[in-house]
């Protein structure tokens, strides 16, 4: 197998179950469904990122279960300012995400075990199977609206804090 094929296979294992839900009459776009009650029931937690330009505060949905992580922000049509989704991971491990069934661009922020940002994948392309990889072991991944990290001064090396996190 080629290296790319191995990475895709690994991502498929990590993201098992990351498939579109069955078709519904509520669909507004081909293959898309609006956010449903299971998303509204996700626990929300405060999250801060300490940048050189000040502390940025978010209220994020916590995708704690494997089912919540598999669905992520799929089928959403927006991510409001000051919000996002946090994917905690224990133990720390390399992470790979794709944008299948994700209708909007996202900034994907990979968080190291010490709470610092390892990598930011800015404005990821919607609805692709291209892998977005952490490049090193991480304890969490934060997804926020595409293109919003840079204007907020969020950069690699910044410290991320949330309840139960490495520095929270």
Task: Set down the secondary structure blueprint.
Layout: H1 3-14, H2 37-40, E1 44-51, E2 54-62, H3 66-71, E3 83-93, E4 96-97, E5 106-111, E6 117-124, E7 132-133, E8 138-145, E9 159-161
Parallel strand pairs: 2-3
Antiparallel strand pairs: 1-2, 1-9, 3-8, 4-7, 5-6, 5-8
The CATH topology annotation reads as Jelly Rolls
Order of strands side by side in the largest beta sheet? 6-5-8-3-2-1-9
The fraction of residues in strands falls at 25-35%
Q: Which structural class fits the helix and strand makeup?
A: mainly beta
How many β strands by DSSP? 9
Radius of gyration equals 15 Å
What is the CATH superfamily? Protein of unknown function DUF192
CATH architecture classification? Sandwich
Proportion of helical residues: 10-25%
Mean pLDDT: 82
Number of domains: 1
Biggest pleated sheet: 7 strands, mixed
- Elements, N to C (H/E): HHEEHEEEEEEE
Number of helices: 3
Report how far the terminal alpha carbons are from each other. Answer: 41 Å
The dominant shape is: globular
The poorly predicted ranges are 5-38
CATH class: Mainly Beta
Briefly say what this structure is.
This protein is mainly beta and about 170 residues long.
